[in-house]
């Protein structure tokens, strides 16, 4: 059996979100590759040094070309291979888009449909592409993987796809490397932590407003925001400057795994104020390091956090301020959240996610062979 994979999301330097997802799956596929189960990973550029090395049963195919790569260069190569008698049993796209025309049965993963809820965050051309190319993918794909039940419900709602076509396979998580020296400067441990890409739906407005209220009685606290710049983020920096909080709100930018480990381990708590998340991996990351979590009660986040989080209305900074105050004043609550978080993370793993994904790919490929 030969499984083809679009590996481009993993072939980047700074891996977050979908890139981490694709990278973890490729690592697992690499371990499972043998003479009976071969993998062919398609890329636009040469594989980065951290991608799994090629073996006799795990290969990369680099197809040059940027413009509409998944709709032109990739399918042309797939049709050429078929004409030459090079059989591929199934094609897997880990991120929303698949070739519109392809001679191979396809499975696609849909991570979230935030563009339906917050269209104002996207450029018009990107929004058109997201809505329409995702529609083609879910209609054409043999099976759809949704990373949460929330995402599955959204796919059914917005694209009128039958539920039986969608398989929910939850994302995984893993502990970062512990107890390593970090390059980040030593800071007071009384800080609130946010980790994520800077973009409007992360709802940093509410977090900053709540932090401002919280600091009135807790002036020793800082707010650390770790994550790369996404889009429409300028207003966040202007807001901090306008509130005269430049010394109290620290923007770290993209941080390494080692730096992120230190931040989680030493934080007073982690806050995810998002208006929408397809899954919310940072919730599990924080829990894995014994960092209490306060999360918005939105989209998939309660599904991920369960009873191991405190929750708040993402549009109510006063409620978030109250949860921060409660956590600061109640040591037992903080201890209970840490304990529950440690239990919660046992339900999730990249190993489990990757195994379930490979099982689905193999079963669908076999059904075509026997059908």
Automatic annotation (TrEMBL):
Domain named Glycosyl transferase family: residues: 179-341
Keywords of the record: Transferase
Database matches in Gene3D superfamilies: Glycogen Phosphorylase B
Keyword match Transferase: yes
CDD domains per the UniProt record, alphabetical: GT4_MtfB-like
Domain Glycosyltransferase subfamily 4-like N-terminal stretches: 65-173
Example of a GO MF term: glycosyltransferase activity
UniProt-listed PANTHER family: GLYCOSYLTRANSFERASE WBBK-RELATED (PTHR46401)
Protein name as catalogued: Glycosyl transferase family 1 domain-containing protein
Organism whose genome encodes this protein: Candidatus Roizmanbacteria bacterium RIFCSPHIGHO2_01_FULL_39_12c
């Amino acid at each position: 059996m030969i499984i083809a994979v679009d590996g481009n999301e993993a072939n980047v330097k700074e891996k977050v979100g979908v890139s981490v997802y694709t990278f973890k799956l490729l690592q697992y596929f690499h371990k499972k590759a043998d003479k009976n189960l071969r993998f062919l990973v398609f890329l636009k550029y040469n594989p980065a040094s951290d991608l799994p090395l090629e073996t006799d049963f795990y290969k990369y195919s680099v197809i040059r070309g940027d413009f509409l790569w998944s709709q032109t260069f990739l399918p042309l190569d797939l049709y050429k291979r078929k004409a030459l008698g090079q059989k591929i049993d199934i094609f897997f796209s880990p991120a929303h888009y698949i070739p519109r025309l392809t001679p191979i049965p396809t499975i696609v993963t849909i991570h979230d449909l935030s563009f339906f809820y917050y269209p104002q965050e996207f450029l018009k051309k990107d929004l058109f592409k997201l809505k329409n190319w995702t529609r083609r993918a879910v209609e054409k794909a043999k099976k759809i993987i949704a990373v949460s039940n929330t995402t599955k419900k959204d796919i059914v709602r917005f694209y009128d796809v039958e539920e039986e076509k969608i398989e929910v396979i939850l994302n995984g998580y893993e502990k970062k490397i512990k107890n390593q020296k970090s390059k980040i400067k030593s800071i007071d441990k009384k800080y609130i932590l946010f980790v994520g890409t800077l973009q409007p739906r992360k709802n940093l407005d509410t977090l900053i407003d709540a932090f401002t209220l919280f600091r009135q009685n807790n002036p020793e606290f800082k707010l650390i925001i770790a994550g790369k710049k996404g889009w429409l983020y300028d207003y966040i920096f202007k807001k901090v400057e306008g509130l005269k909080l430049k010394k109290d709100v620290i923007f770290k930018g993209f941080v390494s795994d080692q730096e992120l480990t230190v931040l989680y381990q030493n934080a007073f708590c982690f806050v995810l104020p998002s208006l929408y998340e397809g899954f919310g991996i940072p919730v599990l990351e924080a829990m894995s390091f014994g960092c209490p979590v306060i999360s918005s009660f939105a989209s998939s986040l309660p599904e991920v956090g369960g009873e191991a989080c405190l929750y708040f209305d993402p549009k109510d900074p006063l409620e978030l301020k109250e949860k921060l105050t409660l956590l600061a004043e109640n040591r037992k609550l903080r201890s209970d959240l840490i304990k529950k978080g440690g239990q919660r993370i046992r339900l999730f793993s990249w190993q489990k996610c990757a195994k379930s994904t490979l099982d689905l790919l193999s079963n669908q490929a076999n059904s075509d062979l026997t059908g």
